Amino acid sequence: MNTILRGIGVLAVTGTVSLLAFSLPPGEARGDSGDDALPRLTHKNWQQECASCHLAYAPAFLPKASWQRLMSGLDRHFGENASLDPVTQADILRFLEPHAADSGNSRMGHKVMQRLGANEAPLRITETRWFVRKHDDVPRAAWMRKSIGSAANCAACHRQAEQGTFDEDAVRIPK
Amino acid sequence: MIKRLAWAGWVLLSAHTAAADSPASFMARYAQQAGVAVSALSPVRGEALYRSEHPGRNAQAVSCARCHTANPKQAGQTRVGKRIEPLAPAANPERFTDAAKVEKWFRRNCMDVLQRECSAQEKGDFIAWLTQIK
């Protein structure tokens, strides 16, 4: 009996905490504290599907129009066939759009948008002016190293990229 | 009524578990689709498919082995450096246990390597080879 009561207590507390979490503005107070930190997001298909080949790139790195273009061309995804069934594809886009750079709910998105032209919808995060400027001190040859492979491999240098942390102090460029 | 629903749910759930896919069930399915006996699936052809190189983009040859490595018991790497768990069931028991996943990756990767979908015979041969790797 005691256990049951305690269980109810725990449920009530968890319920209140999650209600609180939901009432906060999206993106804020969910890990979007540091300058280069991203809102900690979870979405089953985004994490499962996108991250089977590469890091699940945060939606705040590109505007809605980019995600729409990208998700409608998955059968020709940077030279690879990454096609999905229509239901999963639509589900991922429905998640990306409200968290995109121009959705106004993350500081990272704001920074990306500041340097993006009004009608620009690049397919590559590495083509945004924000990315180029942020990485202008990385020598061109470093990107080509076998230990890095490509600029799409964030986690090669940003060791905590999977956790959404892109802090400059934590960057280690492998040899 | 609720009891009956719960019961039906349990039956459905256990039926689903019982019908879980395995390398053998995929081989049986692909052999049937190809109109051949399971014994007619060829590990030799499967291995040849895995290793065969085909012209890809930028005149660079593509093959299954390019990402999955020459030894399918080893972990591979995607083009952008993400780990691919081993393909051989001996090294990774999760392989060939999920129909949606298997069909998705055959579709994508055959399109990338062969520029066409793989036939049922090819898929059956492929699994026949991978399962006999100990």
Helix content of chain A: 25-40%
> Major beta sheet of chain A, specifics?
none
Order of helices and strands of chain A: HHHHHHH
SSE succession of chain B: HHHEEHEEHH
The overall average pLDDT of chain A, rounded, is 83
Main sheet overview of chain B: 2 strands, antiparallel
**Stretches with pLDDT under 50, minimum 5 residues of chain B:** 14-18
Shape of chain B: globular
**Low-confidence sequence ranges of chain A:** 9-33
Average residue pLDDT of chain B: 90
Q: Please indicate the percent range of residues of chain A in DSSP E strands (runs of 2 or more).
A: under 5%
Number of strands of chain B: 4
Number of strands of chain A: 0
What does this structure look like?
The complex is a heterodimer of chains A (175) and B (134). Helices cover 38% and strands 0% of the residues of chain A. Chain A is mostly helical. In chain A, helix 3 runs antiparallel to helix 4. The longest helix of chain A has 22 residues, at 2-23. Chain A starts with a helix and ends in a 31-residue tail after the last helix. Mean pLDDT of chain A is 83; it is low at 9-33. Chain B is mainly alpha-helical. Chain B contains 6 helices and 4 strands. A two-stranded antiparallel sheet of chain B has the order 1-2. In chain B, strands 3-4 form a two-stranded antiparallel ribbon. In chain B, a hairpin with a 5-residue loop joins strand 3 (76-77) and strand 4. Chain B is globular.
